[in-house]
Every structure is written in structure tokens, then in C-alpha cells.
Amino acid sequence: MEFTIKQVAERTQLPASTLRFYDRTGLMPLLKKTEYGTRKYSEMDICWLELVRCLRDSGMPLEDIKAFMLLCLEGSSTSEQRKEMLQQHRQNIVKQMDVLNCSLGTIDHKLDHYNEIGIFHIDTP
């Protein structure tokens, strides 16, 4: 089954402009097009998009995502390289989570402080 860019945008919650950008930048190397240039998405393309989105949402730079996708196309001979890329990215995510958890702790502490002292407003007549 094939899907239009509009259908894929609705299904993935990605704007059509993002889908076009991903195609232009080489993140969708297997995407088929009609003789008129209309994009035709398959289930496999949607799976690729979900992986691209996961990597992008987790902070991986687009160039690294593209390199990862190109390694995927080379087949099993690159599986160790892909595994190393994902392990490194996972370490980056864990570091980000540590920073965010620290920030969250600070914010929670401040909120607790404001809840203790209350917030007073002086109404002027």
C-alpha cells in the first residue's frame, strides 16, 4: 500500500514541509516518486520516518542521523558501527537526563519554597 504525503503527515504528526525536508536532505533514500515527482510512501518509509523522528527528538544531529541511515542501507556489514552510534547516542541522552533531573530538582525546591512562604499580593484601591 502507498500513502500520500498528506496521509503520512497526519499519521506521523509531522508537517508535510518536514517530510519534504527529510527527503531533500537524504534521510529518506528509499522513498519512491512518480514520474511527476510526487512522493509515494510505503509502510517501510513510515518505519524509517519513525526512527528518524525518534533520533531527532532525542537530540541526534541530522548529519548523524543521515550517516546512520546510510549505514543501514549498507546492510549487516555495518551493524557494529550502527550499534556503536546508538550506544554513544544513548550515553548522550543519559547525560541530558541527568542535567534535566538536576534542573527539575532545583525548580521543585524553589516551588516548595514559594508554597511555604505563600504569594502575597497588595491590592491598590
UniProtKB/TrEMBL annotation:
Keyword DNA-binding: yes
Residue span(s) of domain HTH merR-type: 1-71
Keyword DNA-binding part of the UniProt annotation: yes
Domain of life: Bacteria
Keywords: DNA-binding
Pfam family, one: MerR_1
Record's protein name: MerR family transcriptional regulator
